[in-house]
Amino acid sequence: MKTLYIDCFSGISGDMFIGALLDAxxxxxxxxxxxxxxxxxxxxxxxxxxxxxxxxxxxxFDVVLLHQPNKDAHVHENxxxxxxxHSHExxHSHExxHSHxxxxxxxxxxxxxxxxxxxxxxxxxxxxxxxxxxxxxxRLIEDSALDDKIKQTxxxxxxxxxxxxxxxxxxxxxxxxxxxVGAVDSIVDIVGAAILIHQLQISKVVCSPIPxxxxxxxxxxxxxxxxxxxxxxxxxxIPIEQSHIRAELTTPTGAAIVAxxxxxxxxxxxxxxxxxxxxxxTKTFQEQPNVLRxxxxx
Length: 298
Description:
Blueprint: E1 3-7, H1 14-23, H2 28-35, E2 44-53, E3 56-65, H3 134-142, H4 148-169, H5 184-199, E4 204-207, E5 210-211, E6 216-219, E7 222-225, H6 229-234, E8 240-241, H7 252-261, E9 264-265, E10 273-280, E11 291-297
Parallel strand pairs: 1-4, 4-9, 5-8
Antiparallel strand pairs: 1-11, 2-3, 6-7, 10-11
């Protein structure tokens, strides 16, 4: 049984997860080919580069949005920060700030929801035209030519985010509108995660406890403590690890991926490791490399 162990000692965002899987043997060309089935490829370009974070070589994955004033500015979720926004996307725009060092821009894919100026990793800068309602994303995925297993995984992740957002805002799932998570980069992160998990033929996913960081972030509804509301809602029942780093380490997108894919949480299981991958976040911390480490083995 091929097992994936996610060692998220510096948190997790959608773009960090994609970067780590690509570094562990994921195929970027196949990823792009599969993503083309969504028919939104005129809205973005994929960018992969190898960088060094605190002495650790890692893959930095970004979704570069094509229809915005400064397309380079948008750096994704990796910062982790942004990831969130995705999450809530509906309401928030934030996702990005994340850890991703990206500085600005916005990942991630992503989430939290909220405006998050976070400073996480997220750096992507989402624009309104990129935001989609939950029902629109479901239609986009269901109408695509993606494999049914990939569709099921993707829809489960978006449902997890939508239900969290709906509960927080007191609205039914069908009325949830994602601001960040509905942005193109977040969609690519989530669908891309499902594509690579199936491409790598992963049968079981195990994960370390999840550090969420600490401090406060600004979301659409004001200043909130880390983790953002949607992230915390999705991490119910999942072990959270204390962290002294003042940043949003885990974005809504990262939390949703973990909540849906992971079967158990704890230390690394007995495993004959075949591949190791590192996915870089945008931000740089003095105390530790801002990377996500994954191991694949039998």
